[in-house]
Fold this protein.
Amino acid sequence: MRIYDTIIIGAGPGGLTSAVYAASEGLDTLVIEKSRLGGQAYSSAAIENFLGYNKISGKQLTNRAVKQAKDFGAEFVNDNVLDIMRIEHDRFAIIGQFDIYYTKTVVLALGVQYKTLDADGIDNFIGKNVHYGDNVLDKARTCKNKHVYIVGGANSAGQAAVYLSKYASQVSIIIRGHSIEKSMSAYLIQQINGISNIDIQTKCTVKSFEGGNKLDRIVINNNGQDNEICDCEHMFMFIGAKPSTYFLNNILDLDGEGFIITNRNQETSIAGIFAVGDIVSGSVKRIATAVGSAAIAVSGIHSFIANIPIDK
Ligand SMILES: Cc1cc2nc3c(=O)[nH]c(=O)nc-3n(C[C@H](O)[C@H](O)[C@H](O)COP(=O)(O)OP(=O)(O)OC[C@H]3O[C@@H](n4cnc5c(N)ncnc54)[C@H](O)[C@@H]3O)c2cc1C
């Protein structure tokens, strides 16, 4: 039975940084990712605030990080982790959908998943021409010369609008509040203001999605009063996210929203299990936070392994 020094669950920026630090510091390291490597950051069209890069796409950053981790010896496997069990005082079993993996320590870098929009008819069009945030890069070309709507007022929505404006004839951002100033970075607002084919519709909500095989129209409610029917050929939604900790409910201490509670060393309520990045309670949802917390966690892994009692 192979026992890794550490198993990292999730290959977003937090997981990939953990892999780079762990493997480069001589730890036998496995990364388990259930879907695409890179996590949320992969879908960012242009990251402009990560140290050392004026502009880098999430895909480029991911490819570099994966190569870096693999060059240091980290291994990767595609699996969906369903459970974690402590099987002896010095090891954990990670139960995946396809296999069971053994390790002395665990790094939870599970990130978050997009919240879904509650509107009539939406389910008929998801994956056709209605998408949650992580599909912008893949779908941009299909938006050429079309009117595209984006729901959401945070940076991810702003970045998507800037990117899609190069393809679409018009990009309309729909927000519930009366301005994007509270939720979006100033540099992005400035960019958006300078792009003629982006408009922002404030105090609006999407009530329903209509069409045949694909979405043709949306009904937008304006300020709780008038309903307006608008032709809509593509819709992207960035309406917040929830933690991916459904399988950890009875295992670890979570906060009221399901985020993992850690101490300042990224240790969870179980010794030997660490958490990093967006999944951490109270974390700032940024790539740099994921990177920084991963460096702290790997330092803790060394101490934990060094102090595992030999006879118990
Ligand atoms: C469109 C967009 C643009 C962004 N732009 C920026 C930006 O410009 N600058 C910035 O600083 N931040 C940006 N962010 C935020 C940033 O991407 C996140 O803060 C960061 O990705 C968090 O990293 P993470 O590793 O904690 O989690 P995530 O990136 O969410 O990665 C978590 C990974 O864990 C995997 N996973 C979850 N559960 C399991 C399981 N049970 N088994 C196996 N794998 C699992 C998921 O599939 C996912 O790949 C952006 C986010 C989005 C969506």
About this structure: DSSP finds six helices and 17 strands in the chain.
